[in-house]
Amino acid sequence: MRGVRMPHGFVYILVSPNSDHIKIGRTERPISERLRGINGGEAYAAHGPWELSDFVHVTDSTVVESATHRHFIDRKVNVEGTNELFSVAPHEARKELRRISAPLRVDSERTDQLFHNPDVILFLFNLFQLSGLYGNLDMQGSWTLSVLPQTNGGRWFTLNIGSHEVAFSTRTSTDGKFSHHLVLDRLILEYPNTIMWLGQHGGDVRRAEYKAAERAVSVSFDEDFARAERFFAREGVRRAMVAYWADALADLRERHAKSVYARYHSYDAVSQLLEYKRARDKVILSP
């Protein structure tokens, strides 16, 4: 006898600058599709635009959504045409959603294995922060993060924007150092000190093999993760990264295009990176 298939999916929290309430819902479709539907629908559009505040990828989205709704049932708001609005502070809702969903996270073992090394999560945090991916969480599936992918030689992660591979770090180390690869705009060539630094750290700059990205170059260097994240602060790196990544993301958003690698995307890893960012921001901003 076959077991009953659980509604594998997402539970999300949405906020809007035009509403004092939050929306707590679920979907088995990509979050980007659901968000477009909500902002385009008559019931919720009047209170929008709605933006993603938090999300979790879970093995049973019905159970997690129902438990979260029950927890805040006394603060549910009755607005005609809606069924999931609550008068709850976003941070309070996020905390409860994370607590309820923890045992049901999808592919959590892989995420936890990657982030067991605190230097890896710091590296990815800085990469997301610098590139603007934190501001494009609603586009997951157009850009993708695969965790510990099965590749020749092994990788810690691979980041794609559309079909283009824009960042990865190998798992094979030499003297504790890993090989890190990033695709940037050719603006980086205007910064000779940074180019020299790459050469001094076992790397180089090559033309990226993407016909649709004539300005793209691939840079590489060898370093352990604790020191690798310092590359993002080097002269010209932010400018060159934003020039290429932001343009590629804007193009995908305009076309509502999906990456061919969407099925490999780790929503759980991104969710944990978002939680890491909030915890870090709280420490930095606290008096």
From TrEMBL:
Domain Bacteriophage T5 Orf172 DNA-binding residues, every copy: 16-100
InterPro entries: Phage_T5_Orf172_DNA-bd
One Pfam short name: T5orf172
Protein name as catalogued: Blr6922 protein
Lineage, uppermost ranks: Bacteria, Pseudomonadati, Pseudomonadota, Alphaproteobacteria, Hyphomicrobiales
